[in-house]
Amino acid sequence: MRIDIISAVPELLSSPLEHSIIKNARNKQHVEVCIHNLRDYSQDKHRKVDDYPFGGGAGMLLTPQPVFDCINKLKGERKYDEVIFMTPDAPVFAQQDANRLSLTENLIILCGHYKGIDQRIREELITAEFSIGDYVLSGGELAALVLTDAIVRLIPGVLGDSESALTDSFMDGLLDAPHYTRPANFRGLEVPEVLRSGDHSKVAKWKTQQSEEKTKKLRPDLYDIYLNKQ
Ligand code: ADE
User: Fold this and answer.
1) Does residue 186 sit in the same domain as residue 110?
2) How many angstroms does the Cα of residue 82 sit away from the middle of ligand 1?
3) Exposed, middle or buried, 109 (CB in 10 Å: 0-12/13-18/19+)?
4) CB 115: neighbour CB atoms within 10 A?
5) Within 6 Å (CB) of ligand 1, which residues are found?
6) 68/126 same-domain check
7) Other CB atoms within 10 Å distance of the CB of residue 108
C-alpha cells in the first residue's frame, strides 16, 4: 500500500511516521508513506500556497494551483483509490472507514491549513472527506496522521498475532473490556478472579459483559447501534 500526504507544513508530519508500528510497517515494506510539500508546486515566486477568501471572512485559504498541480502529477504516476481531504466539516472518521481504506492500494491525503481550501479543489479532486472529531485543529496534519495510523496498523502483517487488531475496541461495535497484566495482586489491588481461572468460555463471556456495560455507560450512541444489530 502507498499513502501520499500533501501538506503546506510537512515538518509537522515526519516524526510520528518514524517510530513504533508505522516505522516497522514502512521498514518491512507493508506501506510506503510519501510526504509532499505543497510549496514545491507553487508557481508563486515566494512559494505562496494561500490567499484571502473572496467575500471576506477570517483566515487564508489554500489556492487551487499548487493543489491541482501536485495531485494531478501524482495521478499521472499511478491510480488512486481515494483522494481524501481532512476537514472538520465532514463525516467523522470511524473504524469501518479505517477497515475499508486498509484494503486499498493507493491513497492521497490532503491536509488543509489556515482557514480551509478553495471549494473547487473539493469539487474537482477530492473523493472522500473526513473529520477526526467535533473540534477545530490548526491544520489537517495531525488528522492525517491519525488516519494513517488507524489504517496502517490494519494492513495484514503489520501487527503480530499477539497484537491482533481483530479484538480492538470498535471491531464489534463495542468498547474494549478492561485489561490486566502481572502481578495478580499489586499492592492489594486484585486482578478479577475469572481472568485467572483458565476457563476460556467464562473469560470470553466476562469480557463481552464488561464491554457491553462500559459501552452502555460511556457511549450510549454506540450501544444503541450494537443492540439494533443483535
Ligand atoms: N482540520 C482542522 N480540524 C480538523 C478536524 N477536526 N478533523 C480533520 N481535519 C481537521
Assistant:
1) no
2) 18
3) buried
4) 14
5) 86-88, 112, 131-133, 135-137, 140, 143
6) yes
7) 24
The preferred substitution site among 5, 85, 86 for testing ligand 1, maximizing ligand atoms within 8 Å of CB, is 86
- The helices-and-strands tally (H runs, E runs) of the chain is 7, 10
pLDDT, one tens digit per residue, over 108-155 is: 999 997 688 999 999 999 999 999 999 999 999 999 999 999 999 999
Q: What is the pTM of this model?
A: 0.95
Same domain, 120 and 67: yes
**Is 161 part of a structural domain of the chain?**
no
Pair (141, 190) in one structural domain:
no
Distance between Cα 89 and ligand 1 center (Å): 8
Q: Which residues pair with 88 in a beta bridge?
A: none
Residue that is written with C-alpha cell 473539493 in the block? 122
Range of the domain at 216: 169-229
